[in-house]
Each structure stands twice: as structure tokens, then as C-alpha cells.
Amino acid sequence: MIHAEKVLDHVLDHLFDSVIMASTDGLITSFNRAATLTFGYTRAEALGQNVTLLMPEPHCTHHDQHIRHFPDWGGIIPSSQNRELVGKRKNGEVFPITLVLTSVEQSPRDWIFIAIVRDLTQVDAALQNLRFTAYSDPLTGLPNRLLLMDRLSQAIRSLNRESPGIALLFVDLDHFKPINDNFGHHVGDLVLRETATRLQSCVRESDTIARLGGDEFIVLLMGVENPLSALGIGEKIRETLNDPFILESVSPLTLSASIGMTFCQTHAIDAENLIRQADFAMYRAKAQGRNTVVSYTTAQDLR
User: Fold this and answer.
1) Which residues pair with 161 in a beta bridge?
2) The GGDEF domain covers which part of the protein (predicted)?
3) Residue 233: pLDDT above 70?
């Protein structure tokens, strides 16, 4: 019997997942090596403690209720399959876990509970990194076209007659190519990052700034009362981008931007066409001599 227990302890201590056993009254009777690493308690600290030591509220309260009613359920654990919950480390940190819970009946009304716990912290971090990579521009950290399309489509669907509208500003830097040609792509990248920072300073947190690629940016403005309000923000952006760019290793650079604006108060248009309208207005701004803001009108499409 003693030999079997040693073999079991040896096996448990070489598992990747935390394995925690508890008595019918919820006291920890076994705590493998992975559990000590995951939760931060030594075996001596954990053994004999209530298993709620490893749970944040409100799970502690729910667990106590389950323990009290367990005999009434006939020793059957509801939903014993993989469940995503949260655990609590010794330092108070709450972290994501998966839990598989089972029980072994030793005698009537006396069970051993066995919990298999996997720490999802690194998995969650990896998923967040993947999401950031999938939806962000690697140079500026701004949302990319994919995330913009998602947010813009949601914004269009939310429009109704009583709500304010939305507006798109299509921002294209004037004469950006010569900067790359004359000073190199390193300086060009610095200009694009600084442009992103300046755009962010001109809008609210509820708005979205995205980089489409090259020197093209889109600003999605939420809760816009009328086109004039959007044009005012467009002018603010234009003036901000007119300020000299003070960059390392080169003399101050003076840039400008051509900006096209389109305003929308209906969900009768899709995201692609709304971007096309703003793009069309931006090219009208370039045709008018650049460094200006032009509002889209349907009449422009007919020319």
C-alpha cells in the first residue's frame, strides 16, 4: 500500500497539469508539484486547507454550496467536462484555468474529489498576441484594414434615424514617396509612426484610426451630428500634419495631407462603399491642389 502511494505521488509529480485532491468537506489531501508551481503554495501550506484557498469570489461561495448539496445529488458532479474558470494564486493574482472535476466514492456519503487544473495564462497571452498580429498594423500598432472593416460594419449596423451619424476621413500624405527616395525607408517609417501619433491626438478614444498601407490612413468618427463637425476634425488633422516633423538624423520635414470625408446616417450602404466614397473625395482633394479637405457628394460620382 505504501509502495503504491509512492508510485502514485511520483506519477502525479511528473504531470504537466495540477492535480488536487480534496475530502468530502473540501479539505486538500493531495497537491502535486505542478499545483505548487501554478498556485504558489508549498504542499505544507496547501494540505489541510479548504480548496477555496485556490478560488476567487464568487467561486468560493458557489463551491461551499456545491459541497453541501453534493450528497443530495447522489455523488454525481454536474458538468464534469472541461470547464473554463479562474483560479487564484498565493499572491492574489486571478488567472484563467480549465478544470476537470471527478469524484471517487470511498464509502456512503464519503468521497474524494479530484481536480485536474491547467493554467491558461500563456495560452491567453498567445491568443491575444495572435489577435493583435491579425488585426494590427505592425509598423504603427494601429488597427489594420481587417479590424477597420469589422468596426465600420458594426458602426453602420448600429445607425438609425434617431442616432448621430458616422464619418470617414481618408487621409493620404502628399509627396510621401520622395521622403523614402531621398532619406530612406527608415525615415519614412518614422514619418508614418509620427503621423499615427498625431492622428490619435486629434480624435476621441471612441473613434478608430487605421492604417490601410503605405501612406494611407482612415479615421472612423463615431457619434457625428453633421458633416460640418467631421470637416472640422478633418481640418484639425490637416493643420496638425502641417507642423514640421522633427526627426532624428534629418532636417525638419514639412508635409501636408489630402483628406476626403464622407458622412453617413443610414445602414443602406456597406463598409466597402463608404471607404470608396472617402477615397474618391480624397482624390478630389489632390486634384484641387492637395493639402485640403474635401467632402464627398453623390454629384462627384456622376462627373
Assistant:
1) none
2) 164-298
3) yes
Could you read off the pLDDT of 28-72 as tens digits, one per residue?
999 999 999 999 999 999 999 999 999 998 777 777 666 666 666
What pLDDT score does 265 carry?
Answer: 92
Residue 13, C-beta contacts closer than 8 angstroms, at least 6 positions apart: 32, 33, 34
Q: Which residues contact 32 (CB under 8 A, 6 or more apart)?
A: 9, 12, 13, 15, 18, 19, 20
Number of domains comprising the chain: 2
Phi and psi dihedrals of 175, rounded to 5? 55, 45
Query: How many C-beta neighbours within 10 Å does residue 52 have?
Result: 19
**Residue where a domain stops, chosen among 124, 147, 162:** 124
CB contact at 8 A, 27 and 48: yes
pLDDT in tens, 166-177: 999 999 999 999
Q: Model pTM? A: 0.66
Q: How far apart are CA 224 and CA 261, in angstroms?
A: 12
What end-to-end distance do the CA atoms of the chain give, in Å? 92
Domain that residue 101 falls in: 2-124
Residues ≥6 apart with Cβ < 8 Å to 289: none
141 in the same domain as 96: no
Task: Give the Cβ contact number of residue 198 at 10 Å.
Answer: 15
Confidence of residue 82 (pLDDT cuts 50, 70, 90): confident
Query: Are residues 202 and 99 located together in one domain of the fold?
Result: no
Residue 97 dihedral angles phi and psi, to the nearest 5°: -140, 160
